[in-house]
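Z., the sequence and structure:
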Amino acid sequence: MTSPPPVSVVLPAYQAAATLPETLDSVLAQTPPPRAVIVVDDGSTDATAAVLAARTDRVTALRIDNSGGPSRPRNVGLERCGDGLVALFDADDLMRPGKLAAQAAVFAACPEVDLCFTDFQVIDAGGAVLQERFLDGYREFRRLLRPGPLPGVGLLSGPDLHFALIRANFVGTSSVVARAELLRAAGGFDETLRNGDDLDLWLRLAREGAVFAFLDRVGHAYRKVDGGVSARGWRRLPAVIAVRERQRPYVTDPARRRVLEKIILEAKLAYAWGLDRDGRHDEACRVYAECNAARPTWAGIKGIVLATARARLGGPPARD
């Protein structure tokens, strides 16, 4: 086995002054230390710039105009980090000791690996543990893993990887270490997506034959905060739908195609329900109509009847 290669870290930050110091401490405490830590400030108006100014000896800080999401700052960081391994990380997460070294060892032991991800812990805004191992309940991809080069490492690639990711995104962005040149060659993160840009990239990599390695250990703590992507509920569903719809040309197996269409339909029904609850009845009717045209369901028929009635009556947001 060759010596583990060094790892650079790319970290987008927006209004991150409250959490960024602790996050950077956890990144800079890795042994061996990262080759580079590149923080891209996405037009923050809080004290993020001051936090970074105090760490110029160990952190490369870049500032861009606010882009409205993490895709643009991640791409800027990817362009700056050069070739070799890059770890993607978020400004409110905490890197566990030994994470980068353990993942670099996977690449050293198995040169075919293109991306390595880990399990992760979920914490609240104050750091209390909400979930010890987020991926414990994700059985589908675990069944597909083939033995890797080291204990606790499994490999996944090809159509099985692509379809498993369609069913569920089990790759936490802050858990990822990947070959930077491969991420750039795949087009980086899609800056037109408000969310779901990470899954969109993983799916592109899977279609292009990338080999993913799962290192079955907790590599970081994901901080679940109010207002984060995971807290937006139905409002993030348009991107979820768009990313899955992009997979249609690549899923030709009839059984898998039926699963894909079911996932898209269920996401659209959930989005229509959210629109109706938000008082946007006309928009809900249009989405319900799309659902019923694709495949009539009781949820779709009931939904369009109620949303249409509310639209005509100018009623309040739905409560059912």
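The CA atoms of residues 114 and 233 lie 31 Å apart. The domain at 7-231 is CATH 3.90.550.10 (Spore Coat Polysaccharide Biosynthesis Protein SpsA; Chain A).

Let me know what you think.
H.
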